[in-house]
Amino acid sequence: MITIFSDDHEQHSGLLEANGDVFVASPECPERANEISRTIRESGIGEMRAPRAFEDRRITAVHSPAYFRFLQQAWNDWQAEGRKGSNARPQAYAGGEMREVEPRSIAGRLGRYAFDDSAPFVAGSWRAIRRSADIALTAADIVRSEKQHVFALCRPPGHHASRERAGGYCYLNNGAIAAQFLRDAGAKKVAVLDIDYHHGNGTQSIFYQRNDVLTVSLHADPSDEYPYFSGYEDEPGEGRGQGFNINFPLPLGTKWKAYEKALQDALARTRGFAPDGLVVALGLDTFADDPTTRFGLATEDYLAMGKTISTMGLPVLTVLEGGYAVANIGRNALAFLKGIEAA
Ligand SMILES: [Zn+2]
């Protein structure tokens, strides 16, 4: 197992989110990635490499150029406009029956390019966001050239980010960028298996009309859980993509036995697609003690999960998504990676 990691994610810190009537520290904090990095280093599971820098076109292959420029400039524009606060966040959204124009004010553009309030910008955000995408791209390039399992230790995460909307702690969709890279590098069919607790709405929407990238997601039923407006069973894809998106909404409280059954179903569908590239969007927020979610998986279940996925017989590109039980996130990630290596 090769892990790709960079300290640059620490620049994206001091994030705040609303909790009841006050702003509190976001659970999407630097300690998450640092704890995983520390655990992997100590485990001796394999080498850790720094990411290399990829061209912007690898990112604008799945995100709009206007959105890319917005992300790059958001914090500077917030400051230039004399806005107050350490977290730049939207004031209004282009939802409802309003127009998707690009306002001059950064407070308006923050809403144009987001679907919720949980992807704010601080001074160092762009550096971390861009490096996180480079981590996924570096991992994809190694999977392609060395045919090995690679773990992209990405932060911030990516699976909620769509073609031109941030949200759910996500800005650039690292997993989608990696999947597209594999396609452009010669893979004929790529499957993205999303096992985060939350539906990977961004990844689904990016590939919704395509039949060369299968998107499969296991997650808490969106009728009960974030992101609420995406992730239902009756979202099969459209146009040429009809039949190439599969959602497995699961009830709150799901434990390993039921989860494993859904995972086996998901893998059977994925095998039927016969991919030559496999990206796993790994969220560790399915853990029983995660402070933000309501599934019941234990550390040993991640080992079983990795083993089950390894039966696909492909080099696995694992991209980190969510997971907020900081004290356990390292050992859970390691258990999963050991499972992948087991076969
Ligand atoms: Zn999640």
Task: Characterise the protein shown here.
- The chain has an eight-stranded parallel beta sheet with strand order 4-1-5-10-9-6-7-8, with helices on both faces. Strands 2-3 form a two-stranded antiparallel ribbon.
- With 343 residues, the protein is of the alpha/beta class.
- Helix 2 (65-80) packs antiparallel against helix 3.
- Helix content is 36%, strand content 13%.
- The longest helix has 22 residues, at 125-146.
- The protein has a single domain (2-67, 121-342), classed as Histone deacetylase domain (Arginase, Chain A), CATH 3.40.800.
- The protein has helices at residues 30-43, 65-80, 106-112, 125-146, 174-184, 201-206, 256-273, 299-310, 326-342, and strands at residues 2-4, 16-19, 22-25, 48-49, 150-152, 190-194, 213-220, 245-250, 277-282, 316-320.
- Helix 6 (201-206) links the parallel strand 6 (190-194) and strand 7 (213-220).
- It is globular and about 55 Å long.
- It starts with a strand and ends with a helix.
- It is built from nine helices and ten strands.
- The structure holds zinc ion.
- Zinc ion is lined by residues 196-198, 283, 285, 321-322.
